[in-house]
Amino acid sequence: MKELHSDILIIGGGLTGLMTAYALSPLKKNIIIIDKFDFGITKDANADLRTTAIAEGSKIFFEKINIWPQFSKYAEPIKYIKVVDRTENRKINFYNKNTSQYLGFIIRNVDLKNVIVHSLKTKKNIQLINKVNLKSLVHSDDFIHAFCNKLTIKSKLIIAADGKHSTVRRLLKTPIYHKKYNHSALVVNFHHTKNHNATAHELFFNSGPLAILPMKKIRTHLFSSSIIWSHDKSSVSQLKKIKPNLLRSILEEKVCKYTGIIKKIVEETKDASFDRCHFTDFGDFSLNFELVYYIPTNNYLAAMEAQQSINLKIIEEFAVNNIEFAFPTQTLNIESNKAK
Question: Which residue of 23, 99, 222, 330 is surrounded by the most CB atoms within 10 Å?
Answer without folding.
Answer: 222
